[in-house]
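Posting for a labmate who doesn't have an account.
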Amino acid sequence: MSDWGKEFEEYLNRSFQGVSLGEIVKGTVVKIGKDYAFIDVGLKGEALLPLEEIKDDTGKFWFKEGDEGEFLVVGRAPSGGYLLSYLKIREKRLKEKIKESFEKGVPVKVRVVSLVKGGYSVKVEGLLPGFLPFSQAHFRERLGEPEALLGAEFEALVTKLSKDDLVVSKRALLEREYELKKKEVLEKVKQEGILEGEVFKRVEGGFLVDFQGVFKGFLPDKELSWFRISDPDGFLKKGDKIKVKVLSFEPKKEQIKVSIKALEPDPWEGIEKRYQEGQRVKGKVVGVFDFGAFLELEPGVEGLIPRSEIGWNKNLKPKEILGLGDLVEAVILEMKPSERKMVLSLRRLEPSPWERLVEEVRVGDVLKGKVKQVINHGILVEVREGVEGFVHVSNLSWGRVENLKEKFVPGQELTVKVLEINPEKKRLVLSIKHLTPDPWESFAATYKIGYILEGVVRRIVSNGVIVEVSPEIEGFIPFKELSEEFKEKKFLKPEKVAEQYKPGDKLKGKIVLLDPVNKKLHLSCVKYIEELENQELENYKGNLQVGAGLKLGDLLAQKLSKP
């Protein structure tokens, strides 16, 4: 060695005095070069630290120029100076930390690196290799494809630590956290019964609420608020954080039923002091249905107005009168605070239309009305709003009325006469035929028993023929009074009579019964013939030529056959 070389080596030896191999020294990163970082450890020359020692798996440096750190002296660099290591000191300290974590159950950070047989190869705290079994990679969640976990970072517990093995478990940590949260929630349920949770899912009739991932509670729609909520879907949405009160809890099934409105005062408490039956109240219409409407008197206090109490007209439909948001006045009919029920009425605010009818209308008055309904034995006529009268089929006309539904239709305007008013039974008897004089009276004044009448056959009944003698008067001819042919027959079928007598045929008969009070008129064709025969006999008596061979019966037959 030349003198220059010896002098340089002596210079270096003097420069490294006070530092020994295996010693941990403090230093400052002076410069980060291509392959090394230059560390000032307080000596005349910088020590060298390989760059691989201060890079993480992504290539990111843990130090930058000017940072300070502790390093382990591991040798001398080929170019002189000390060679330092950061990894060895970090490995040493990580092993101490992991050992402590294993002994105390403290979680460590884990990053999944690759798939291996039975599980994953992981980096613990970004440096030490470890193993995560498949069975320990999840808890209460479906594990998808194993590759999905590659690159994931999470905390886990060290479950096995030896010279050769470092095994971690995410499941063990999650199980422990789950049990702690569960205990915490149960303690809150036991002590105050109030929980904070997150809306998890909308289900039929309510919502599912998640409590710290350990319980799912059911929040019914009716427990959302004391207020009427028409659209629960818009009241809460998934992810909303809410505070609730526990209504019930079944430990075995871990089922919780909760309420939001239970956190607020019950608006029905002390309601008897604010409202009484018979009291007039004002409120807002918050629901309209076919069976009635709901009126909100104050937040959380609603009363039902049944359809029958909307108006005096029982045919009114709630939606024809009320709309959502309408402000109306009503009277309280009934209160049941224990059942949270209140019945209201709108119609009781006004006098009954029957009361007004009694004041304004008398028997015999003529009224205008509209047909409300046509039934088999008459028609219902509305003469006032909420007041309907009945016209029996017998009071529709002095004559016979058939096919009511063809003659009358709902909405048809009519003029009627009042025959009876009974407000207590809501009974109003009306008549159309009494608008005109009784035709039987004038008929009885014109015709007497023994008069001859001509009528038109309208129908054949079981024991006789009905003939119309005037537009509103019908007469009856028994079968035996139709002709000599039928006179002696005791049992005669209408079908047999119908072979000779058709609707529209004209018949003449003698009045044998006239009872205008009971509207009865009986005729006899036989007696008419007999009378005719007698008349003919008298007329032709003088001309009867018995000697010429012409008999009386022949003469009568000739006479009757003449038009």
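Reply:
Got it, the structure tokens are right above this. The first strand starts at residue 24 and ends at 32.
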